[in-house]
Amino acid sequence: MKIGLFIPCYINQYYPRVGMATYRLLRNLGFKVEYPMGQTCCGQPLGNSGYERYATQGIDHFNGTFRDYDIIVAPSGSCVHFVKEHPGFDSGSGWEIMELSEFLIEMTALEKLKISFRKKVGVLQSCHGLRGLKLGKSSELMQRGASTIVRILKQVKDVRLVQLKRPDECCGFGGTFSVREAELSVKMGEDRLYDFINSGAEVITGTDVSCLMHLEGLILKRKLHLEVKHFSEILMPV
Amino acid sequence: MTDHYESAKKFLKEPSKVDWHDETLWWVRKKRDRAAGEVDEWEELREAASNIKERALAELDSNLMEFEQKAIANGITVHWAASAEKHNEIISDLLRERNISRVVKSKSMLTEECGLNPYLENHGIEVVDTDLGERILQWKEHAPSHIVMPAIHLKKKEIGKIFAEKLKIPESDDPQLLTETARQHLRGYFLHSKAALTGVNFAVADTGAFVVCTNEGNADMGVHLADVHIASMGIEKLLPKTEDLAVFLRLLARSATGQPITAFTSHFKKPARGKEIHLILVDNGRSAILGKRGFWKVLKCIRCGACMNTCPVFRKAGGHSYHSTIPGPIGAILAPHYDSEKYGSLPFASSLCGSCTAVCPVKIDIDRQLYAWRQELTRGNGSQLLVSLIGKALQRNKLYDRLGVFLSMIQRRFPWIVNRVLKAYTQSRSLPDVPAESFKEWYKRNRDE
Ligand code: SF4
Fold it and tell me: Are residues A87 and A7 part of one domain?
């Protein structure tokens, strides 16, 4: 099984450490994984801003880059969601794309990992992963079932998961929404942030670095003491 | 065009009110969760409702013909209105022919959509809204901010003030007292009105009957005391069979307010002796929407308001921020069909979180339609040079990488430039520091480490 690692543009630029943690984690678990150097961006920012029609060249390029892989793994629910939802991807090459936590659960890969993380952790359920990729049951649905990331964190020793008042309300990032409706986006983010703070979380984690970046930005601006980590960084501390 | 962003910003200026609005609607959402959770087959019900609606819409033409035939046979007078104007004209003519100059009206979003109140007032007919929330708004000269709780943007104190001013009672914010006062005040209108206007929640093709749901009983009170009942109905409200109601009545009130069923669920089939029922079937753009691929499912909506209660944008920006008759997520995909310029900012007023889609009792793919609208609405934008360049760069990885290095350098050396360009973002949020190397650069050195 040949795994291609897809590292979204903002992770590549701003959070290489998340790419490193993901790469090392997969290698450590014994997977044969490569990062195709020619990759660019999936085009989601264009699509969500209403310019999907300009993303077609990028999509073709993506298809070409990952042509020889069986599975594409990416540490981002929202990029994976875009690739899965968009008919232009995967024109016949046969790969499957999975968000990292989904992949780890699917492969029951975590038994080998002996890690401990002695912190109170709050999970930010990113919407595109939760509701789009159905990585768990969102609170609107009358079905139960823990999300992939919660299931993974439960396998980490000493982690204490905190209970949020609103377990899966949107953090308000939303890509260009965060700029276009800046005040609203900030208010949504603050409300999420204080839910984490009031629940006693020391660390906020999640599947999507974009949402985490938004909350981290608020934390930095307010000089609060709250750590923000992609879950791969908990599983594979550097 | 009123940009949603501007009005949201205005609403957000009063943080305590925003939090109150947000919490109140979140409380309704939680009530809905509890009520839905008590029904074991909730998700199956949603699926059934979605299927019934989709089939009903696919066969809308024949269903409507059947409905009309049955309704006429029952003694209901059926009118067809292609447009809002025609709808208003029909009502105004019916009233004038009968020399009626004052009517009581229960809640109907369709009459809001058609602008019926101002139309009738212009034609010398007084309309008295009898839904408590709507009565308050009529006094305040406000538009509804929510389709189920139209005055949810007003706090008890503000309502007490209006009552004191309009009904000359001492100012109070005691809901019981205010409701009792309203009851006494409205009673006179009910007793003396010759005609009653209502909306329609569902109509049934195989019986020619229709159903009106309220919690206040004001529709029933109006209808039973008046000689003429005029009901306005959007053509998409039609269900094929009576048993379909068993699905929809279980979903509607639970989704709307978390009640098992509305306090009053009234079935109207034929006029009482000596009385008249007029039913107006209104198109007003609906059949055009029905023909639009990717968008027609918006017509499945049963106007429960659940998507508004769950929507963080709605809760924190208020219903008026949408400037459309139907606000919230459903309004954002509906309104642009009527005027894509005026309502062009609405599909962008969303983080695409998809909570609306997951809560919707008829499973409308709201977030997908928001996305689809964005693709439509950007077509008219002027120069698209920048986006087309970005699009091209995605294909040329060398150029793309160099661009990345260049932008990192800018942010590292001239952070003020980035802060200025991205001011909207960076004003309240810090951007992360740019690390010494990108992942790609790291990987080049460390692969197969
Ligand atoms: S779109 Fe769905 S949730 Fe929103 S009002 Fe209509 S039926 Fe209710």
Answer: yes
